[in-house]
Specification:
about 120 residues; mainly beta; two-stranded antiparallel sheet; 1 helix; elongated
Length: about 120
């Protein structure tokens, strides 16, 4: 079970149906003129960014509400019961999309981009 909260509103999907994360390396590599060597500056990677898909089940109103809430200007907290590694504070980035599942024509999906932030 997953819970998304922004301090005033909560979204509880049936399941997180898709989760993708990546982090960009902060390490800088510069080629040295006239040499085969490189100068390396080690830096930590950025916070995670990615996309998520929420399965809202057959409840069209809950899906529409989740879409509207995710379009707002909020810092969200994701808390899960069984997947602690995805718990985080994040902001929504890019497009928020609501789809009626192609195969079932009955299940509502919400897809959005996200950027992890420090709480």
């Amino acid at each position: 079970m997953a819970t998304f909260s922004n301090g005033t509103s909560t979204i509880v999907p049936v399941v997180i149906d898709g989760y993708h994360s990546e982090s960009e390396s902060g390490t800088v590599v510069d080629r040295l003129l006239g040499s085969e060597d490189v100068a390396v500056t080690l830096r930590p990677a950025s916070l995670r960014t990615g996309t998520m898909t929420l399965n809202m089940g057959v409840d069209e109103i809950a899906a529409a509400t989740a879409e509207t809430l995710l379009r707002g200007a909020h810092v969200w907290t994701l808390t899960t019961v069984d997947r602690d590694t995805v718990d985080m504070a994040f902001v929504v980035t890019g497009t928020v999309r609501r789809d009626l599942h192609d195969e079932t024509r009955d299940v509502w999906l919400i897809e959005f981009g996200w950027q992890e932030v420090n709480p």
